[in-house]
Amino acid sequence: MSAKKSHHAYTANLRKSSEIVDKSSILFWILSGIALIFLLWAPFQRGLFNGNNFDFERPIYSSFIWASIILILLSIYLYFQWKLEEKSDVAIILAWLLPITYFISSFPAASANYAANSIYIQIIYVAFFSLAYYLTKQDLGLSILKYGFVSTSYFVVIFGIMNWFGNKEAAFALVKWFAANMEPNTSYLHAVMSDSNGPRLTSVFQYANSYAAFLIAVLLVAIFLVITSSKWYSIGIHAFMVVPIIISFFVTLSRGALVILPIVLLLVLPFLKPRKQVTYLIHFVLSFGLSVIILNKVTTIGVTLFQGYKSDLSLSGWTNLLVISLIYSVLAVLIQKFASPWIEKLTNRFEEKRFAFLAIPVVAVIVGGIGAVLLFTDTGVTKLLPENIRTRIENINFQQHSVLERGTFYKDAMKLFEDYPVLGAGGGAWPALYEKYQNNPYISRQAHNFFLQYLTDVGIVGFAVFLIFLIFIYFIYIRNFIYQDEQTQNKRFIFYIVSISLLVHSSLDFDMSFVYLGMLLFLSLGIMISNDTMELGGQWKEVLNTKKWAYPSVILLVSLFLFFTSIKLLSADSQFNQSRAIAASGNNNLNDILTPLDNALSQHPNHPDYVYQKVSILFQVYNQTKDEKYFTEATTLLDQVLQKESFNFQLVDRKIYSLILKDKAEEALQFTKDKLNSFPWKVYLYEVAISLSTDLGHKAREANNIAQQDQYWSQAFELYNQFEARKKALALLPKEQGQGQEFSETGKMGLALGQIQFVRGKYDAAEAMFRFGIGGSLDDPATRQNIRWYLASLQKQGKTDQALFDKLVTKDPNERQEIQNLINAKF
Prior knowledge:
The protein is mainly alpha-helical. The protein has helices at 2-41, 54-81, 87-94, 97-105, 112-135, 139-164, 168-175, 208-228, 232-251, 255-268, 274-307, 311-347, 356-376, 387-394, 401-419, 429-437, 450-483, 486-505, 515-528, 540-545, 550-584, 590-603, 608-625, 628-642, 649-661, 665-676, 683-702, 706-730, 747-759, 763-770, 781-796, 802-811, 815-824; strands at residues 192-195, 198-201. 74% of the residues lie in helices and 1% in strands. Residues 1-23 have low confidence and may be disordered.
């Protein structure tokens, strides 16, 4: 009887075990497929750039759905498989503290919308971190993600090169069925961009510096695969891609990447055996040397083709690139098959030395230092490079404008942090608040430093959690790496290269604002620790393992919430775009425009772009119909959203407009003055505040309230003095650093202040103010008004500007009498 029972229990357990394996196998392939599709899809959505603007949101919302599906599937897998055994299992739980800190920081957030998006993006990262961790516990999963990343990265490089050689329509034809919508363009927009330095390759990212960061990772990975592949065709394939990667790297014209590349190389080399270090450096130097041979030509070809396609030039570019790539590919195979064993023999005895792994990197630093001296001093070495690349290299110095600008961003970010030190100002703190803290009126919705931007988002608490998480991951990886054999070390090492490349370069730029690059970072971190053998100690893990359903249940709940939220966000985006398309088509039916817009707002309430669109339409309709219901609806919605988006200047502008529209001048003045604290470099706010102060002073004068008149007019000049003080501060900026947006007196400002001085009888001071607005077109009523008052102030002083007077009177003969009326006016 007991034997029968025992047999029954055994077969039941065997059947249950078989079911788990089957379920795990199905989930394994589904998750693998999702990962591969995402690796191909994501970069072509402009790298999933989080631009904190509706233009960039749709693919990010789509990726929320991807992440939620991954988490749902993982939660099912974990119901059968989850248990705490290794230290790395703790890292999976610790990762959830990242979105939790963003969630906590969302309560005092400067922008509720930015903060919410940031929470969801952090969940995406945790989803791919978890997927990579569990998927790559098996060698098959590791191979799938490894070669999935490598092949899609190579495709991104080829796509970029196609655009550089003018084959942009052909390149886009390969990807347009799944890439971001570029209509009405027939090519991928801004894959090559031009700025003051000339054309720069950006590939899928539309930002050259972040593409360069990506290329650093791909280049060092490719060379590593060259030196560790055993089959000749595998060596040849990876080697064949190295020269296109280097050429792409150079034509990004990224100075920061040129500085960062040797630093990352030095963080990679110590992990290799000395024989591998030697081989790695040989390939590195040889591939760069061969690339430089054709660099001048392919650069010139790309610059020329940017102006217009020429088939013969494009063919020449491809021929040069393919020939040199093939030459290096053949040499790489020969080196690995014949020179590498010889190098191994030479270094065998040397490898036994304790610090042998550091010797070659130290020599590399010395040689690199000599190379840097040759490159950055007047030795003529840079003359071997194309002019645009040579200019960029020669301009690398601490007084260069981009260095000075970044220094300013970093100081301003610290000022922001000082006001929100503990929990930060929520996700998107920098784009929401930078105008409040900026030293000069630059436009940069990115702080150009991932770590500082993270610090402003979540404060010292969230930043400490993130650092602890990173330190823990690298501790697990390095500790395991030390005790592994070389073959095991090599399996995951490319993901160390990817992670360290992205983290180091993001200290100089906003690479992590590309969700695709952030995903690659967390994917790499998950893979790095997935073969951890460091066992957890203590009884507490046994207690948790008895409740193995708890963690998967939480993950399932979070993933379901994210899934349904993502569907709503995506639907709202579709409705909003539909409303914009209807309005742009010329359809003036209010109901047709507002119905999808209202649907968007019902699914995504308080989205600042949706609200701005609706409020603008309602104000327009109110001005046409004078029906108060439209005005009331607009202001109610506006006031509601400004409570959560008080630093959104578009909405601030609409609020000022609504107050002025209803002649609430005093309230408008107070609101504008308050907002000058948040936007101290907005010339428009100074214009409005000075004009309102002047108008209120005129009203007080007409009511014979001289005290109030003087109060308002003194306030107008106080505002002007603040403006002038800021303008003088701009003059102290280093000459190499641009000030950013224009910050100078305007005609509207001068008219208001000039009228005050004119009424006070200070005609010389009035003349100086009116001068700010006399240089515009005479077709502009505001310019004519300034000229009218200016000429009157001159005549009051017994002076004249006959040429200007004649031009004005020729334009409108009535101006003669208007000027006389001002001269005769009694104030």
